[in-house]
Design brief:
The chain is an alpha/beta fold and about 325 residues long. Helix content is about 35%, strand content about 25%. α4 (about 75-90) links the parallel β4 and β5. The radius of gyration is 20 Å and the shape is globular. It binds NADPH dihydro-nicotinamide-adenine-dinucleotide phosphate (NDP).
Length: about 325
């Protein structure tokens, strides 16, 4: 019998509590044995609540234990330093998005994981959704024909509980670029099967983020093959569903209620304007992330989203931010 992957959590976060701890517990061959958080009493309580044996305030102390892998889900500015420390300590890393705050940091993470022969994966879970997989299949099989236009709308009303550092702290990487753009970039590059090469963007502030931090952006981008893509992202959309549209020479596909944490959404194929629903069996994507990661740790495959994939998503988000700041299109 293969030994369990023993996980240590770096960051006593909501995403870990709501999605990743349950996903690890639901995936055979995996267990959560330790958690680290900055506040002693809070992390002790978190460990009790989630039946985790050991709680630490020090990342180094957590890394000195016999864990095999860490899941890094504290605030964005801590992702790269914590991942680097874990890789240095010989631990496999599943990092949260954005994988880092700068490209130098992200490249260093990818290089260190490669040098050490360790798995580095990023939790862009959206690749694990059956809706997005179906869209990938439709593109790859040629069912849509050559694509001529693509649109994404990732507009949500950011719940009160998710505000705070995400809408206020430039130091922690607040704003839509590090929250939504990285996810859209990874999902679209996965579905389209190619990378973005050029991006332009204009941001807005609609009072959800503090002044000076964007809570909305309109992005126009182009892929290596020349396809143009429009992406709208916002923390302030209250009355609409998220959506993806892929328009090809043979058919269009409209996806609604996608790009989210919970599984769900509806896909419709449109030929000559006649829409027909594509049946989808929805599944939680997070156990899929854990399963693929654990298999990669055992040397039996690759993670759902590798460090290199995370880097490609971050490159797009940083280029989009530069484009917004400069008022010019940026090559990637
Ligand atoms: P949270 O705000 O819940 O947690 C982030 C950190 O903030 C914690 O690790 C903790 O720091 C600190 N913190 C949180 N609550 C408290 C509190 N009450 N008192 C003191 N400190 C607190 O963040 P999220 O779970 O929303 O996001 C965490 C990361 O995960 C982000 O990087 C985000 O981008 C990513 N994310 C990814 C998603 C995905 O689907 N891939 C979805 C949601 C988030 P510490 O542990 O250092 O004490």
């Amino acid at each position: 019998m293969t030994k369990n992957v023993k996980w240590g959590l770096i960051g006593a976060s909501r995403i870990a509590a709501e999605w990743i701890i349950p996903a690890i517990k639901a995936t055979s061959g995996n267990e959560v044995v330790a958690v680290q958080g900055g506040d002693g009493p809070r992390v002790a309580e978190y460990a009790r609540t989630h039946a985790i044996d050991r709680a630490f305030t020090s990342v180094d102390e957590l890394l000195a234990t016999d864990i095999d892998a860490v899941y890094v889900s504290n605030t964005n500015e801590k992702h790269a330093p914590c991942a680097m420390a874990a890789l240095q300590a010989g631990k496999h890393v599943l990092g949260e998005k954005p994988m880092a705050m700068t490209l130098d940091q992200a490249e260093a993470m990818v290089a260190l994981a490669r040098d050490k022969g360790l798995v580095l994966a990023i939790n862009h879970h959206l690749r694990g959704m059956n809706t997005h997989r179906k869209l990938r299949e439709l593109v790859e099989s040629g069912a849509l024909g050559d694509l001529v236009a693509v649109r994404a709308m990732f507009g949500v009303l950011l719940p009160e509980a998710n505000r705070g550092w995400r809408t206020e702290s430039a130091e922690a990487g607040a704003g839509v670029f590090f929250d939504l753009t990285v996810h859209d970039a990874d999902t679209l590059q996965f579905i389209l099967g190619e990378k973005f090469t050029r991006v332009a963007a204009i941001t807005s502030n609609n009072g959800i983020s503090t002044k000076g931090i964007e809570d909305g952006v309109a992005i126009v981008a182009q892929t290596a093959s020349g396809l143009t893509v429009q992406i709208t992202e916002s923390f302030a959309v209250e009355h609409a569903n998220t959506s993806l549209e892929l328009h090809g020479k043979k058919a269009s596909v409209f996806a609604e209620g996608v790009l989210l944490q919970r599984p769900g959404g509806k896909l419709e194929l449109s030929v000559q304007g006649e829409r027909k629903e594509i049946p989808i069996t929805h599944e939680n994507a997070y156990p899929r992330v854990i399963e693929a990661f654990a298999a990669a740790v055992r040397g039996e495959g690759r993670p759902l989203v590798s460090g290199e994939d995370g880097l490609a998503a971050l490159k797009f988000a940083i280029a989009a931010r530069m484009a917004a700041e400069s008022g010019r299109a940026v090559s990637i």
